Amino acid sequence: MGFFDKIFSGLTKTRVRMEDLEQIFQDYRPDDDDFFDELEELLIMADMGVDTVDRVVTSMHYLCFDKNIKRGDKAREVLIGELKKELDAGDTELKLGTKPSVILMVGVNGVGKTTTIGKLAALLKSQGKKVMLCAGDTFRAAAAEQLGIWAERAGVDIVRHEEGSDPAAVVYDGICAGKARGSDVIIIDTAGRLHNKANLMNELSKMRRIIDRELPGADVETLMVLDATTGQNGLIQAEQFLETAGLTGIVLTKLDGTAKGGVVFAIANQLKLPVKFVGVGEGIDDLIPFNPKEYIEALFK
After folding, report:
1. What are the tens digits of pLDDT across the range 61-93?
2. Does the first or last residue of the chain, that is N or C, have fewer Cβ atoms within 10 Å of its Cβ?
3. Neighbours of 88 (CB within 10 A)
4. Contact, 78 vs 60, CB < 8 A?
5. pTM for the complete prediction?
């Protein structure tokens, strides 16, 4: 199943919420303010974010008037075009040009971070890359064991220490092992304690210093895992991590379980970060690279 089919299936709940769009476009009139008010309300309900929706609908209103668009299907095309512009927040591809490269995974507990790491490892391995997992979350009980299970499922190596060990020491050993074994990518798990805890942010900074010291010039992606079902609330978490962890992208999980799939627009606009992967199911192959164009096409099909 390709990206479009998977994202189409994964967006089922969001599309059901947006089916009313089709009805209101049938009733479209360029001089009808009620139409644009109703459109704005529907997009906000899909969790696209108030600022994003206001900008998109205002621009669409102007373009429909300026181009004298009188048909609903043409107005719909204008909306889709404006939404595509909103998702232009940077390169959605991972930058993994060095050997090894590093992916630092961050996010609060409960968002599906460990599962995401396992799926990402499997995806990269399927692309021919040799992957090493590093169990840097030594705070949560059984975190390393859970990551070990995913390493086994994905068929990749893992470095881990005992619970309560110094996370930075695990990262150091993981990097050393990755270099010794010729790994292409080292994926580092981190503790998922609340984002406002200073010690967590200090811990992340220490990990990053070790990466920079041991792998100078290496490509490093710092990806935050967000639970799509939390909608706008997840953005508050992300803003805190953005300030301290130097995020390069977002992984949006549980997209198939929410009607708030419009949150990708809020992420792009409020955080100015690209969504790089989306999770659309429980299977090991249900983490897929994000394609903005196909996402919007699936949303409106």
Report:
1. 899 888 888 888 898 889 888 888 888 777 889
2. C
3. 10
4. yes
5. 0.85
